[in-house]
Write a structure and sequence with these properties.
The strands form 9 sheets. Strands 2, 6, 32, 34, 35, 36 and 37 form a 7-stranded antiparallel sheet that branches. Strands 7, 28, 29, 30 and 31 form a 5-stranded antiparallel sheet that branches. Strands 12, 13, 14, 15 and 16 form a 5-stranded antiparallel sheet that branches. The chain is about 5% helix and about 40% strand. It has 3 domains: about 110 residues, Jelly Rolls (Sandwich); about 30 residues, no CATH class; about 325 residues, Glycosyl hydrolase domain, family 43 (Tachylectin-2, Chain A). The model has no long low-confidence stretch (mean pLDDT about 95). By secondary structure, it is mainly β. The longest helix has 11 residues. The protein contains 3 helices and 37 strands.
């Protein structure tokens, strides 16, 4: 029997993890079941009976909806929701926030470097930045910045700010010698070729007062997008960052037992062979789902070199190592020609609540191609907005006609079952609880409509009647329907 810690309050369908794959049972004419291990007697004709084999269903990522741009936000694509407020941090170099990342950052050693915090009540109107100047002698060419709240650090180092910069050769000489001892598959040719890029960090007790670490975390050229987090499931720090392989941008992953000492970067996502050969996986945009952190997601930006445009896809992972694209096509694309995001976009992180019944990620866009010469007006055209979805509606199990499936056994955290779904009046959804009298699929009252939290009933009764702590299998029957999530309340 599962323990109390295994209780589930929600199931999302971002991949197949919660859906049984089933099997066939082989029976003879008398209904006896034989298995593969030395069946008795002479060979006889057998017939197959499907056992919990799903059929007639598919997964589909849902496209995001967009807000208008917000010109007040000066961050670079990450927002966290903390203490009821939206917060973001960024670098300000020589008094300019656009010198903190990208091509504009490739300059001489700066006169001043500040870590700036901004916050907002609604994600649209942002405060003036609270600035903390830091001393980073010899560093320049800042890029690939990120931040996170470290749940296992001492209080003085609870907030972490991570960024890539070019460092003095004297500072990184020992690290570089160690780096060149790595196997070739663990090296980035740009670093091995003498571009002394390293990943640096600073820490803070409150997100306002920052102290930089003198020693780099690792030698790596993490230009443009890096994610760092503490993964409690493996009790290690995890980093998602950029790699360059085959002349293309890939997404890589590294681990560390302590924050200052990292292992090699291993590839996890790269252009598929059925993608056009000019595609790069430019950003990782890692996030966890806000109310169900066991669902690890990415919103990687795919760069099209042929047009210098882009799209944002949705990827899902159970362990943060093996990743798969959720079918359904891009979840975010550029707007129409002439609109503020009409040429090039990128998805930000993290997923956060965004008003009643919505979740969202920040996203950036411009009406210029990505590598268009960056005169001041081109820089000024870059703006940020929000890409949002109705609550829990990132992905769906879809039955275009008739489909059935069973969930993996789950210990419900509540006594009633709520579904988030869309089904026309001519379609329906039914769900049964295996082994519970009066709660089978055929006992279920059919459901249709556009419902965010519909309480399931069986003959008008809402209680599931599942004994406390008992695992239960949900058996679904769908007709022309989309099922987004299941909640136990």
């Amino acid at each position: 029997m599962a323990n109390e810690d295994a209780r589930r309050s929600k199931i999302l369908f971002t991949d197949w993890r919660d859906i049984q794959c089933g099997h066939l049972r082989w029976l003879n004419a008398g209904g006896e079941q034989f298995g593969v291990g030395n069946p008795p007697g002479e060979q006889v004709e057998m017939y197959a009976v499907p056992q919990n084999v799903p059929h007639g269903i598919r997964l589909q990522a849902e496209p995001a909806r967009k807000t208008e741009k917000t010109d007040e936000y000066k961050g670079w694509g990450r927002v966290i929701f903390e203490e009821g407020k939206y917060r973001s941090w960024y670098l300000e170099i020589n008094g300019h926030f656009k010198l903190g990342t990208g091509s504009a950052a490739h300059a001489e050693p700066p006169r001043s470097v500040c870590i700036c915090r901004i916050e907002s009540e609604d994600g649209l109107q942002w405060s003036e930045p609270q600035k903390c100047e830091i001393e980073v002698p010899g560093q320049r060419s800042f890029d690939g910045l990120t931040f996170f709240v470290d749940p296992v650090a001492d209080e003085e180092e609870r907030y972490k700010f991570v960024y890539c910069a070019q460092a003095d050769e004297e500072l990184v000489a020992d690290l570089m010698a160690e780096y060149l001892q790595r196997q070739p598959r663990h090296r980035d040719w740009r670093v091995a070729g003498g571009r002394l890029k390293a990943i640096f960090a600073a820490s803070s007790p409150d997100g306002l007062r920052w102290r930089p670490y003198r020693r780099p975390l690792m030698m790596h050229m993490s230009d443009t997008d890096t994610t760092v987090l503490w993964d409690e499931s493996i009790e290690r720090y995890v980093m998602y960052t950029r790699m360059m392989r085959q002349g293309r941008r890939w997404i890589g992953r590294a681990e560390a037992e302590d924050f200052m000492h990292w292992g090699p970067v291993e590839p996890i996502i790269w252009p598929r062979l059925d993608d056009p050969p000019d595609y790069d996986f430019y950003l990782n945009a890692f996030t966890r789902y806000p109310t169900a952190p066991q669902y690890r997601l990415m919103f990687p930006m795919v760069y099209h070199r042929f047009t210098e445009r882009s799209e944002v896809r949705l990827y899902s992972s159970e362990d943060g190592i093996a990743w798969h694209e959720v079918p359904g096509g891009p979840v975010l694309e550029p707007g129409k020609p002439g609109e503020w995001d009409g040429e090039f976009i990128h998805g930000g992180k993290d997923l956060v609540p965004f008003g009643e019944g919505r979740i969202a990620i920040p996203y950036g866009g411009t009406n210029y191609p990505h590598k268009y010469p960056r005169w001041p007006a081109v820089w000024d055209a870059w703006s940020l907005g929000w890409a949002w979805w109705p609550q829990d509606r990132l992905c769906a199990v879809v039955a275009d006609r008739v489909g059935e499936f069973c969930t993996m056994p789950v210990v419900p955290a509540g006594g009633r079952l709520q579904l988030n779904f869309v089904a026309p009046r001519g379609g329906e959804i039914r769900v049964g609880l295996d082994g519970i009298e009066g709660r089978g699929v055929d006992d279920c009252d059919p459901m249709h409509g556009d419902c965010m939290a519909h309480t399931v009933t069986w003959g008008g009764e809402q209680e599931m009647r599942v004994p406390p702590g008992r695992p239960i299998t949900l058996r679904f029957r769908l007709r022309c329907a989309k099922l987004f999530s299941v909640s136990f309340v």
